[in-house]
Structures are given as structure tokens and as C-alpha cells.
Amino acid sequence: MELSLLLAQALSGLSRGMMLFLIASGLSLIFGVMNILNFAHATLWLVGAYACYTFWFILQDHSFAIWLAIPLAALSVGLVGWIIEVLLIRRVYERELPEQLLLTYAMVLILGDLIKITWGVEDKLITRPALLAEPVFIAGVPIDSYFIFVIAVGFAVFFALWWFLKKTRFGHIVRAAVFSREMVGALGIPIPMIYTGVFVMGIFIAGLAGAIQGPVGSVTLGMDMAIVIQAFCVVIIGGFGSLLGTLVSSIIVGEVYAFAILFWPGGALALIFILTAMVLIVRPWGLFGTPLRA
Amino acid sequence: MRTKSLLCLAAVLAVCLTLVSGGMTQAKAGEPYNLGAALAITGTGALYCQDGVDAIKLAVEEINAKGGFLGQHPIKLYIRDTHTKPDSAVRATRDLILRDKVRTVLGTYSSACAVAIKPVCLEYKVLHIPAISNSEGITLTNFSPYTYQVVPNSYMQAKAVVLGVAALAKKKGWKTFATIASDYEWGRSTQQNTVALLKQLAPDLKLIKEFWPPLGETQFTSYITAIMAQKPDFVLGSIASKDNVAWMKQAKAYGFFKKIPYPGSLISVTELILQAKTLDRGLVGLCRAPFFAHMNVPMMANFVAAFKKKYNRYPSDWAVMEYDAVYGLKQGIEKAKSIDSTKVKDALKGATIDTTRGKLYFRDIDNQLSCSSYLGVVADDPKYPFPIYHDLVEVKGPDSWRPEKEIIAARAAKKK
Predict the structure, then answer these.
(1) Distance from the CA of B41 to the CA of which of A39, A143, B54, B173 falls in 20 to 30 A?
(2) How large is the ipTM?
């Protein structure tokens, strides 16, 4: 097989991986810091896609429509995240995992119905910007230019989060909270404020990912359920709370899926789940996670 | 004397009981006709089903304006969401039958849903009219006399594609092909039928790879590059609804359709409208009931005008077929002179009905309507704000459906 074709497959795997990273990074961050398994994360991702459609629809006569719609959608979903945290999530921090799961699953259903009421049941179609409508060629291989944009945003989010966690005071506090929230609290740092900030940030990234997903196909009800399991697989493989782990596992999942399609099309999805199961058995805290956390 | 009196009393009671029980099965004038629709309001199939729901509502309004079925049974419509999932479809159908007491279930999107609800309708002797999902499995084996299909089934569609593709392959010297089909009942059955028929008509063509994206796939990039890596002479696709939109959008962005011919994939009126700006002109597509093919049929012209007036848009294939389903049922009821489902079922057997697509009939052996499949070249048309099919080829039902002897053989094989 030609090298250029393998490159094409690798790039398509990378784009798939980056889309997963954008969804999973917020999920991992929220669980890593807050110990909240947010089952509604992918539904908030879907809200981001619908919000992007609304802003794009309003602005569609302008050439910058999608470029403004994406950040506006992410901010809107961040705001929704803040409301959810204040009204619901902060009430279950000390509860058991099954109760948290029940609450966030209830949110999936409520948000699903709210989406239906707000946007209706028809699929929404966002036209891609002219700039990203044609393929680009890398070593003679055509690549969907929109996915180059997705890959770029994925890495940008990774570096922004890395910088935030490693280089800012708030980031240091967040990292410390991953290991011992009691100790951080004992230092006089208001844990609820940290939690709210982290939750909103995670949901903002989910909204951003959803907004970026919008122009890929059509925006439709039920998309969240198709992606949520793969996002969980990514987080499990990478390790909850590990940014680098989420990035690496997203790329692994994307590439495994892409090359499985090339060589064993029938087993692509199964391979992802086999990989997840193996990690759960051999290294339950994930490739880059730490077993120290209780 | 006493014995004689008792015998007389018993006879009178028996007559009364007979009359009462007869009256129970006989619908009274004015009794509403409960009509169910099990459709995908959410999930993968929602894109197609919304139009179907709107068309059903329109047909119901029109019929109710004249007093309902037989002019005396106003229709009460019950719509349930199958979520495009078979288990959910079965629950919705049971609810429709047991709680809402429907006499007919219209449906469904996803052939897996249609196959799942068929035995439920049979169990309760309720008519079942699939008008969107079209797997041949719905009528081929495990035949239910209560199921009437008003959409060209997957075999008929495959045959239509194959006739067109075989001619193209000969003309262009194509030798190899790949397939991409959604990994569920309809995708599998359409792909298998197409490949099997193509082997018969063009035995030299070689299938080099099959791709099965899961239902609900949002990102097709890896499939696109993998297909391009195989370098097939052409690709056959069986992807529907929102998956089809994502696939077409992403494949176009890769320049896929400029590199590899993609003839005969499902491009329904929904896709023609939704992707009016972006759809590649010149694509050879397949659809099930394009309204513009039958504007010369008064029923179609009236339907399109009414639909446009009510919803301010053109009807898709799915709207056309659901509308025909309601009017097919109406004609069955009129022929039976009853709303009793068993009588209507018998009346529809082999019946010829007026549809928006012209006069069509149900084939005895499988209750499949003799409806056509349509192939054409996507092209702009000054009459419409979206592209339609030019050089339209209508492959008639009787020219494309599976021969009866094969159906008999398939059923015999299933029994073993």
C-alpha cells in the first residue's frame, strides 16, 4: 500500500481523535477535579452544536458567520454549565457515584427535551465557510480542510489547558485539588468556587467541541448518545483527570479506528471497546492517570 | 311445558347474545377510527419522519373534513416516537394498540423497527403499513397478512440501481467496486441485494471491499480515505437520513465524488432540498417517491399544492409515501365497507389503489405495492429552488421486484 494513502488514513484518524479530545478533555477535567461523572457532558456538547446553528443562522449573510458563531455558542454553553453547577451539581458533590449518575442522566433527558422544544425535531444544517469547503493536499493526499481546522483547535485547546494548569495560580490550585481537595480547602481556598470554575470550563470546552461539530454533518437529536460512549472510552484509556492522557488516548482511539476501517472494517468499534476493557483490567487508572487518588 | 318454556328462553337468550356479540365487532356510525403512527420523532430517522408525520396529518385533516373513513368514522391520530430503536418501536406499538386502541399502525423509519413491530401487529390483528422503512425482510419471510408495504423495498431499489450501474459499468469499462452501507437491517439487506444482483447482471465486476459504518456515525473521514486507498472504479452506497447528509458533506469536502463515481446512492428529495447549495450536480442518485416525477397525476398535484400551502415547503419522498399509506388504508376500508382490520386486510389483498404515484396494486404473495424506483442525474431546474432529477428513469415495481418463485423458496428455506 502506498505511503501517501497510509498518511491519509493517519490524518483522518488524527482528526477523529481530535474531535474526541475536544469532547473528552472537559469530561476528564471535571471528573479529575470534582469527582463528578457527568453523563450529560455529551448532551451539553449537542447544545453547543445547536447554539452554533442559531448564531450562524442569525449571522449567515456575513462571511464571518461561523467564526463568530463558534465562540458565541461555546460561551452560551458555558453559561448553561454555570447555571447547572449552581442549581444542581454542587448539591451532589458529597453524594455517591450512582446518585451523581442518576442526576446527570436525568439532565440528559431534560436537556434532550429542552433541545426538542427550543430547536424542534428537524435536522439543522450549517453551511461550511467557503475557506474550508475544498480539500487541501498534503503529499498529494486530499484532506478535508475543515478537519485541519479541527486538528488545529484540538491542539490549541490542549496547549491552552496545559498552560492554564501548569503556569497559572488558579491552575496550580486545580491540580492540587485533583490530589487532595481537603488540603486545598485547609489552605483557605474556597473549594466551591474552584469547582464552579472547573465545571464551567469543562462545559465551555464541550460547547466549543459541539459548535465545531456543527458544520461537519447535520445537527440532530440523538447525536450525543452516539458519541458519549466513545468519549468515556477515551477518558478511561487516558486516565481520569490527565490532560496528556486524554490527548494521547484520543489520538490512539482515532488512529485505531481509522486503521481498523482500512484493514478490518467490521471490527473498528469492537477494537475500541477491547482496548478500553484491556486498560480497565491491566491499568484501571488509565495510561497517564495515577492510582494515588481515592 | 316447563321444559318447553326453558328451551324457548334459552333460544331467545342465544339470539340476544349473538346479536350483542355481533354488535360488538360491528363499528357504530360516528365511532372514531384510531390511527397510530410509530415514527422516529427523534434519533437517526427524525430527518425523514417529520415530513412523514406532516403528510399523515394533512391526509387525516382532508379525510376528516369529509366525515372521516366511510364518511362516518372521524380519524383520531396517535403518534408515538420509536426513537429509531427496535425495542422502543415495539413499546410504542404495544402502547398504540393496547392503550390507544388503534386499528392501524403506520410507520416506520429503520427497517429493524418495522421487522420488530410486524409480529406485534399480527398478534393483535392490527394493520401495519410501513411507508418509509423498506427492507425486503419486512415482507419476504415470516409473512404477515396484516402488513402492507407502500414503499419500493430494498430488493426493488437494488434492482433499479443494478440495472443502471450494470449499463454504466459496461459503457465505462469498470472492473472493481467497493460498498459502504450503514450497519443495520436496511443497510445490510440493500447492500446484499445489490451485490447479489450485480453478480448476476455483470459477473465480471469484482467487489474489493465492504465498509459498514455504524448507524449514527458522524465522522466518515476514515471511511472516505480508506475507500480512496482501495482505488475502486466505483462505489455503491446505502446510507440514509442524517448519516447520509454527513457522509455526502464530508465526501464532497474530500473531492471524493470527483475522483470516484458514486452511482445510485439514496438521494431523496430531502437531500435535494437540504443540500440544495452544496450537492454535486451530475451525481446519479436513487430515490423512492419524488413528487416531481408524477405532477401529471391529479392526486399528486393536489397533494403537493396542499402540502406546500400548509407547511410552506415541498414534500419529500417520505411525505408522499405516508400520504399514500393513509389513502391506501381509506380505499381498503371503502372496499371492505368496514373499519374492521381483518376485513380491511382482506379487502386490500391484491387490491388496486389510487396513489399520488398513479394506480398501483398490492402483489398477492407479499402485499408489496407495485411502486416504482427512480434514478436520475442531479441537476438544477428553474421550476424549483433546489436541484431535482433530470433524465429520470422510472423502474416499475413489477420490473424490479423479486420473482415469486424466489419468495416461495426463501420462505421454504426459512421454515427448515
Answers:
(1) A39
(2) 0.77
